[in-house]
Amino acid sequence: MTLFNTVTKVTAGLTLAATLGVASMVPAMAQDVTLRGASMFDDNHAFTKTMVKFAELVDEYYDGNVTFDLRLNGELGVEKDYVNFLQHGVVIDYTIMAPSNMAKFAPSIPLMDMPFLFRDLDHWNTVLSRTAFGPLEAELEKNADIMILGYTGGGVRNLVSSAPIGNLDELAGHKMRVMGAPIQAQIFSALTAAPSAIAYNEVYNAIQSGVIAGFENEAASIQNLKFYEVAPHVTLTKHTITVRPIVMSGKTFRKLPADLQAAVKKAGGEAGAFGRELESREDGVKLQEMVDAGQLQVQEFAGRDKLLEMVIPVQDAFASDIDATELLKAVRGM
């Protein structure tokens, strides 16, 4: 039987004292185990729902008792904190996070977030359903003692702009915000746009004041932060489909009984598939909600296949720099 204990259910009398620096479970031969999870979001977020599903599946596949202590709303910090906790086997045992936060341990892992890595949702799901990222998983486990149990994600990132951007002519010179990773600016420069890295909390005002004319993001962020007020046009470039690994501390995993280890691995893969379907579906729903409310106008990008061709040299150079050339070839071949 699995017991769920989220931040919304923990009584005020409980503290984190027992969590900090203390082993997360009893010896491996015992049946009762506590696994500590963390989410930066509330219980309505796809990541949280996926971690709850993970717990349910572990319960289904394991005959012993596991208590899942899942803390929400960033109570235990942000994803960069989670990496440190997982590496040392303290505070938390499992979570979901962006690959970029683990790049210092696995230099090739940012490939997962590279724009135009996936041709479409079917390609993305095929890659994540197979063992293409096995070398990255091995690198992360060796260098950081962090295990990847499965892959969720599914948010589709598109161009968001104050005026329509529907083709290469309109994209040329388009002043847009990109994330700070150099590969992001390199990709959009190759597409003849004019990208610049601006702090995320400055994007709304930067568009409003004309410093930039747009950015790129997922539907959930556009809706939550009301970006549609200053950038009501979405162009379906579908340049990034997010990959978010479900991870566990290797130190935690090795302390688990063998049958629980097997249950955790099986549950991780299945929870990832559950989360991918959930998030990709919710992404489309949120986009349609804004369209139906008259907040956004959505259009396709004319000649998107040309974009895929234009970025190949940049992708190849990036993969070479991070020693991931063979991995990129494998992903493209799926």
Uncertain runs: 6-30
Radius of gyration: 21 Å
> How many domains make up the 3D coordinates?
2
Q: For the terminal residues, how far apart are their CA atoms? A: 39 Å
Summed up, the helix count is: 13
How much of the sequence is in beta strands? 15-25%
Which key terms come to mind for this protein?
334 residues, alpha/beta, D-Maltodextrin-Binding Protein, domain 2, 2 domains, eight-stranded mixed β-sheet, two-stranded parallel sheet, 13 helices, 41% helix
Question: What would you note in describing this structure?
Answer:
The protein has 13 helices and 10 strands. It has 334 residues and is α/β, with parallel strands linked by helices. The two termini are 39 Å apart. About 7% of the residues have low confidence.
Outline of the structure:
This protein is an alpha/beta fold.
Protein topology:
Blueprint: E1 2-6, E2 32-38, H1 46-61, E3 65-71, H2 79-88, E4 94-96, H3 121-129, H4 134-144, E5 146-161, H5 168-171, E6 175-178, H6 182-190, E7 194-197, H7 203-209, E8 214-217, H8 219-224, E9 233-249, H9 250-255, H10 258-292, E10 297-300, H11 304-310, H12 312-321, H13 325-332
Helix pairs in contact: 1-10, 12-13
